[in-house]
Write a structure and sequence with these properties.
The complex is a heterodimer of chains A (516) and B (195). With 516 residues, chain A is an alpha+beta fold. Chain A has helices spanning 2-17, 54-61, 117-123, 302-321, 337-346, 379-386, 416-431, 447-450, 467-474, 476-495; strands at 30-34, 37-41, 44-46, 49-53, 64-68, 73-78, 81-86, 91-94, 97-100, 106-108, 111-115, 131-134, 139-142, 149-157, 160-168, 173-178, 181-186, 192-193, 204-209, 215-220, 224-235, 238-247, 280-285, 324-327, 351-358, 368-373, 392-394, 400-402, 436-444, 456-463. The longest helix of chain A has 20 residues, at 302-321. The radius of gyration of chain A is 27 Å and the shape is flat. Chain B has 195 residues and is α+β, with helices and mostly antiparallel strands. In chain B, strands 4, 5, 6, 7 and 8 form a 5-stranded mixed beta sheet that branches. A 4-stranded mixed beta sheet of chain B has the order 3-1-2-9, covered by helices on one side. In chain B, helix 3 packs antiparallel against helix 5. Classes of the chains: A alpha+beta (516), B alpha+beta (195). Chains A and B meet through strand 9, strand 29, helix 8 and strand 30 of A and helix 5, strand 7 and strand 8 of B.
C-alpha cells in the first residue's frame, strides 16, 4: 500500500517534470543567437554524446521531419533539400552527399535526438542562411548576426597595467569612462567572450561583460589615475585594442605611459604565431590511467616511462631555461587529446612536446623518432593557413567575409614551419646520445598535435617491444640521457630563433627522404 | 551373358565418346587452348559463372625492419561492385599470409564497408583492431595506411578512407593517428624496392 503510493508519487513527479523518459537535459544548453534575440537550446547527453532534440531544431529552423518506421529512417527537409538518416548509422545523406556524424541519431520515447554536429555538418550546408555552431562557447549563430570573439591578456608593467583585447573579426568600438570603470562598446549584436579573468592591480579590479549587450566593463582600482587606449591594425584577421591603466604616483605627476606602439610580447590568444622566446613549455606524458599505451615483454608500461622522462625534463628546463614548465598530467590519469592540447593553449605555452614510447610487431625494431604534424591529411584549408593565407568565404545569404579565426581543429597549421624546425633540432640533439630509428624525422597526422596553437612535436623515445630498449627505457641512466638530449634540442631551437618577432622562420626541413 | 556383353559395349561406347569429347571435341571448340591441358580448362570454362573468380590486387604488409609497409601482389576474391571489391580487399589485408606479416591485429573482423558517391569509403572494423593492437604509434600508422592505401591504390573509385570501430567514428585507433576525418592515399609509409 505504502510502496504503491510512493510509486504513484514518483510517476506523478516524472510526469510533472515533463513526461520525457530517459532523456534528461543534463548538459548546459546552447544559446541561439539570431537577429531578433537569444534563446536557449537544450542539450541532452545520450551515450556520452551531446545531442539536440530534432523537434527543437525543427521549431527553430523550420525543418520538416518525416519518419519512415518501416525502414527505421528519418528524412529532414530544409530549404527544399533533404537529409536522410538511418537509426544505428553514424552517417547522413545531405542533398545526396554522404557525411559522417559522431554518433547515429537516437530515438527516446517519441523524440529523436541528433548529435550537435548535425547542425554544422548537415543543416548548415543546405540552410540558405548562415548557421554557425561554436562548440567552445556553446553558441549557435543563425542569420546575419555580428558576434566577434574576444580574448584578454593582462600584463602588470609597474606603474601601468596593460590590457590587450584581441578581437576577431576586427570590430569598430568606442571607450566611455564612467565612474569607477571604463566601458568598451563594440559595434556588434553580442560578444563571444573567452576567459576575462584578470589579477587585480592598483589600477584594475577586474574585467567582465558589461550591462548592455556587446559591451565589456573594466572595473578600475582605487589607485587608477588615467588611461591610454591604442588600436593596433588587424593582423591576420585579429585586431588588438591595448588599454594602459596608469596608477596615481606619490609625486602626483602623471606617469608617462609605457611606449604603446610596441606589440605585446606575450604569445597571442587568438591564433597568431608567437614572437619568440620560451617562457612557458608544456610537456605531455603520453597515455595514462586505463590507457597504458605500449607494453614491453618485461611489463614496462609506456605511460610510466613517459611520465618519468617528463618529470626529469621539467626539472632540467626549469633550471636551465628558467621557463615555466607545465605537465599535462603529473599522475597516472587518463586524458583526452583535446585536454592535452588545451593545457598548452590555455597556458599560452610557447612549445608543446608530447612524449611517447613505441611498439612494433617486429621485435628487432628500435630507435627514437621525432614527429611533427603532417598537414596533407587535413585538406587544402590547412595548407593555405600554413602559408599565412586567408581567404574570403561566401556567406550564405549574400556577401563574403574573410576567414579570420582558425578552427581549433587546425590551430597547428599556422605553426607548421616552426614545429618542423623544433623536430629537426630535437632529432639532431637526440642523435648524439640516443639510438635513432632509420625513420628518425617524420610527419604524421597525430591527433594530439592538431589542436596545439604553438610549435609542437611528438617524440617516440624508443621501442618497448625491443628487449634491449625496454631495459634502457626503464633505467634511470637512459631516462636522464633522454631528458638531457631533449633539453639540448629545445635550447638549439631557441638559439636558432630570430631575435625580433615576425621574421621568417629560421629553418624548414624537407618533408621526408633524407633520413630514410 | 548377352546382357552382360551389351552392358560392356554400352560402357565402351560412352567411354569412347567421353574420350573423344575430352581429347578432340573440346580442344576443337576451345581451339586456342593447348591440347595438353584440356582437362583443366574444360571444367572451369563449363562452370560459368565462376564461384571463385579472382582479381590480382596490391596488398600491404609490415616490412622486415618493422618501419614501413611493403606491397605484395595477391589474388583477392572478385567483387562485382566497388563496396564488395573493397570488402574483399580489406578482408584479404586482415587475413594472415605467412611469411608476410599483416599490419592489422589478428582477431580483427571487418563489420561493414560503405562507399559514397564522392569516393569516401567507410571501413567499419571490430574492436579487436584496438584491443589487440601493440599500441605503438608506428604500428598504428602502418595499420591505418595498410587499409587506406590498399583501397585507394587498387580502387580508383575510392579517394578517401575513414576507419570506424564498432560502427562508430573514433578519435584514434591506439591514441595517435587522427581518424576523425577520411584519409587520402599516402605512400610515404611504403617502401618500394625491397624485392
Amino acid at each position: 500500500m505504502k510502496s504503491s503510493a510512493l510509486l504513484a508519487a514518483i510517476v506523478a513527479a516524472l510526469a510533472a517534470v515533463g513526461g520525457l523518459l530517459a532523456a534528461q537535459p543534463a548538459a548546459a544548453p546552447y544559446t541561439v543567437v539570431m537577429r531578433d534575440g537569444r534563446r536557449p537550446l537544450p542539450v541532452t547527453t545520450v551515450g556520452g554524446q551531446e545531442m539536440f532534440a530534432l523537434d527543437d531544431l525543427a521549431r527553430l529552423l523550420g525543418l520538416s521531419v518525416r519518419e519512415d518506421a518501416l525502414a527505421g529512417g528519418l528524412a529532414v527537409t530544409l530549404n527544399g533539400q533533404t537529409i536522410v538518416m538511418a537509426a544505428q548509422q553514424p552517417l547522413a545523406s545531405v542533398a545526396g552527399r554522404m557525411i559522417s556524424l559522431p554518433a547515429p541519431p537516437v530515438r527516446q520515447g517519441r523524440t529523436w535526438y541528433v548529435p550537435v554536429d548535425f547542425v554544422s555538418r548537415a543543416l548548415a550546408p543546405i540552410a540558405g542562411t548562415r548557421i554557425e555552431l561554436r562548440k567552445a562557447s556553446r553558441l549557435l549563430l543563425i542569420g546575419d548576426v555580428r558576434l566577434p570573439q574576444i580574448a584578454l591578456h593582462v600584463e602588470p608593467l609597474g606603474a601601468v597595467t596593460r590590457l590587450t583585447f584581441e578581437i576577431a573579426p576586427p570590430t569598430p568600438h568606442t571607450i566611455a569612462q564612467e565612474p569607477g570603470r571604463l566601458v568598451v562598446h563594440f559595434d556588434a549584436d553580442a560578444l563571444d567572450l573567452a576567459d576575462l579573468r584578470a589579477t587585480p592591480t592598483g589600477a584594475l579590479q577586474g574585467v567582465h561583460a558589461g550591462d548592455a549587450p556587446a559591451t565589456i566593463a573594466v572595473d578600475l582600482g582605487p589607485g587608477f589615475a588615467s588611461y591610454h587606449a591604442t588600436d593596433e591594425p588587424a593582423d591576420r584577421g585579429v585586431a588588438r585594442l591595448v588599454i594602459d591603466l596608469a596608477v596615481q604616483t606619490p609625486s602626483a605627476t602623471p606617469q608617462p605611459p609605457v611606449p604603446p606602439a610596441q606589440p605585446p610580447s606575450a604569445p597571442p590568444l587568438l591564433g597568431v604565431p608567437p614572437s619568440g622566446g620560451l617562457r612557458t613549455i608544456v610537456l605531455d606524458p603520453g597515455h595514462g590511467g586505463d590507457d597504458a599505451g605500449a607494453r614491453g615483454a618485461r611489463g614496462t608500461l609506456e605511460k610510466d616511462v613517459t611520465l618519468a622522462v617528463a618529470r626529469r625534463l621539467a626539472g632540467a628546463l626549469e633550471t636551465r631555461l628558467g621557463a615555466r614548465v607545465i605537465l599535462t598530467r603529473d599522475g597516472d590519469q587518463a586524458l583526452g587529446p583535446d585536454e592535452r592540447a588545451a593545457a598548452a593553449n590555455n597556458n599560452k605555452a610557447d612549445l608543446f612536446v608530447s612524449l611517447h614510447a613505441n611498439a612494433s610487431l617486429r621485435a628487432a625494431t628500435s630507435g627514437a623518432e621525432v614527429f611533427s604534424l603532417s598537414l596533407a591529411e587535413y585538406g587544402e584549408q590547412a595548407q593555405r593557413l600554413a602559408h599565412g593565407e586567408t581567404d574570403a568565404l561566401p556567406v550564405l545569404g549574400g556577401g563574403s567575409r574573410d576567414i579570420d579565426v582558425i578552427p581549433w581543429d587546425l590551430a597547428q597549421a599556422r605553426h607548421i614551419d616552426q614545429s618542423t624546425a623544433l623536430a629537426h633540432a630535437i632529432e639532431g640533439a637526440l642523435r648524439e646520445h640516443v639510438p635513432m630509428s632509420a625513420r628518425a624525422l617524420e610527419q604524421a597526422p597525430f591527433r594530439v598535435l592538431v589542436g596545439a596553437n604553438m610549435p609542437a612535436v611528438l617524440v617516440e623515445m624508443g621501442f618497448l617491444t625491443n628487449a634491449a630498449q625496454e631495459r634502457q627505457l626503464a633505467s634511470d641512466d637512459f631516462q636522464n640521457t633522454l631528458a638531457q638530449s631533449l633539453l639540448n634540442g629545445i635550447l638549439r631551437y631557441r638559439d636558432a630563433q630570430p631575435a625580433a618577432p615576425g621574421l621568417a622562420p629560421v629553418a624548414t626541413v624537407g618533408p621526408h627522404g633524407e633520413h630514410r | 551373358m548377352r546382357h552382360r556383353a551389351g552392358v560392356f559395349i554400352g560402357i565402351l561406347v560412352v567411354a569412347l565418346a567421353g574420350a573423344w569429347l575430352l581429347f578432340v571435341g573440346l580442344p576443337r571448340w576451345y581451339g586456342s587452348k593447348p591440347v595438353a591441358a584440356p582437362a583443366a580448362v574444360a571444367p572451369a570454362a563449363a562452370a560459368e559463372p565462376a564461384p571463385a573468380r579472382k582479381i590480382t590486387a596490391t596488398l600491404y604488409y609490415v616490412a622486415a625492419d618493422g618501419l614501413s609497409l611493403v606491397g605484395a601482389q595477391r589474388e583477392v576474391a572478385y567483387g562485382a561492385r566497388v563496396p564488395e571489391q573493397a570488402r574483399a580487399i580489406v578482408e584479404a589485408e586482415i587475413r594472415p599470409a605467412p611469411p608476410l606479416l599483416s599490419a592489422i591485429p589478428a582477431g580483427t573482423t571487418l563489420r561493414n564497408v560503405f562507399v559514397t558517391d564522392r569516393g569516401d569509403a567507410f571501413v567499419d572494423l571490430s574492436s579487436e583492431v584496438r584491443t589487440k593492437h601493440s599500441g605503438g604509434s608506428l604500428d598504428e600508422l602502418l595499420t591505418v595506411y595498410a587499409i587506406v592505401d590498399a583501397l585507394t591504390v587498387n580502387l580508383p573509385a575510392i579517394a578517401r578512407v575513414q576507419i570506424l570501430i564498432d560502427g562508430k567514428e573514433v578519435e584514434t585507433l591506439a591514441g595517435h593517428v587522427d581518424l576523425r576525418h577520411p584519409l587520402v592515399k599516402n605512400l610515404e609509409w611504403i617502401v618500394h624496392d625491397t624485392h
